[in-house]
Structure formats: C-alpha cells, structure tokens
Amino acid sequence: MIQNCQDALAINRYHGGANLFITATADPNWPEVRDAMLPGQQPSDQPDLIVRVFHVKMAAIIKDICTNGIIGRTVAHVYTIELKKRSLPHMHMIIFFHPDFKLKTPEEVDSLISAEFPNKVFV
Fold first, then answer.
1. SS3 for the chain, per residue?
2. Which of 45, 52, 74, 81 is paired with 58 by a 20 to 30 Å CA distance?
C-alpha cells in the first residue's frame, strides 16, 4: 500500500498535478444485474454479479477516457477500487491530461462536471 501511494504521488508530481478526480459506485439496480438474477432473488443475493458488472463498466470507462480520449488526451491515470456500504464496489480515479488538454478556465471545468442527486423514490 505504501509503495502504491508513493507511486501515485510520483506520477502526480511528474505530470504537474491531477486534472480530474472521478468517483463511481456500483448500482445494484443496473439492468444488467436485474436481468441476470433468478426469479425472487434480490441484488444482495448476488454480490459476485454486482462486482462483475461493475468491473466491466469501469473497464469501459477507463478505456473511453484513457484510450479513446473522449474528454481529451490523457498521459496517466491512477485508480483504486474499494468496497463500501452493503459491499458495493466503489472506484476513485485520478486523471492527468496532456498539457495541451489541461483545463485552464472555469468554463472548461464546468463543461465536464456532472452531479446527480439520488432519487428519493427507490425502484
């Protein structure tokens, strides 16, 4: 753990600071999870299924951001996955942009920010 932290700090220093910090949490109500359950089962009965779907979705996000460059050219990324409440996986990801793609104005930052409040009515 200490070595991983030191590596992340070295990457941060080398690339002149992080540009984005992204957090993502698994949703037990994803259609992929619900469709794969047997009749009468609840998502809490299939934690392995939730983790598998989460892994596939996070791999797709990492590919889109870091390989396909959907929000700009990246030069590095660091992420960690941990288990949160109710054993749901949770990812924290730090992204470092190429100097030509760094966010320099508040308008550029606002163009990438998205926040959602959870629905009070659970499905």
1. CHHHHHHHHHHHHHCCCCCEEEEEECCCCCHHHHHHCCCCCCHHHCHHHHHHHHHHHHHHHHHHHHHCCECECEEEEEEEEEECHHHCEEEEEEEEECHHHCCCCHHHHHCCCCCCCCCCCCC
2. 45
